[in-house]
Design brief:
The chain is mainly β. The chain contains 1 helix and 5 strands. It has a 5-stranded antiparallel sheet with strand order 4-3-2-1-5, with no helix packed on it. The termini are far apart.
Length: about 120
């Protein structure tokens, strides 16, 4: 049974969506339908979790909007997600960053960023 499900969902997997990790600052472009019109809505924040595998894989993005923490869960392979852009790469030693929920102020957006050392 598992093999049959794997074969059916294999063609629905998106290859261009797996290049971000927990702690990265991302911008998610989602398609929103309002009546007959369709537009793209942008949600930018820090990825605090990635769960699941295969077609059921999801990621949670958290941002601070008007002083309130807002989290949104996106399916990685959803056809409603147009693209996921990585704004900032980070160095995080955890699989989930739920501790970000308790942070207030400037610390709420602070993660250890990856440093690029250029060679000359």
């Amino acid at each position: 049974m598992n093999q049959i499900l794997h074969e059916i969902t294999k063609e629905q997997l998106k290859d261009d969506r797996g290049h971000f990790k927990v702690g990265d600052g991302v911008t998610v472009h989602t398609k929103v339908r309002e009546g007959e019109k369709e537009r793209v809505q942008v949600f930018a924040g820090i990825v605090i979790a990635r769960k699941g595998g295969g077609i059921q894989e999801t990621f949670t993005v958290r941002r601070i909007a008007y002083g309130e923490g807002v989290e949104r869960v996106f399916p990685v392979h959803s056809p409603n997600i147009e693209k996921v852009e990585v704004d900032r790469e980070s160095v995080v030693m955890r699989a989930r960053m739920y501790y970000m929920r308790q942070r207030i102020g400037k610390k709420a957006n602070k993660v250890k960023e990856k440093r690029y050392v250029g060679r000359t």
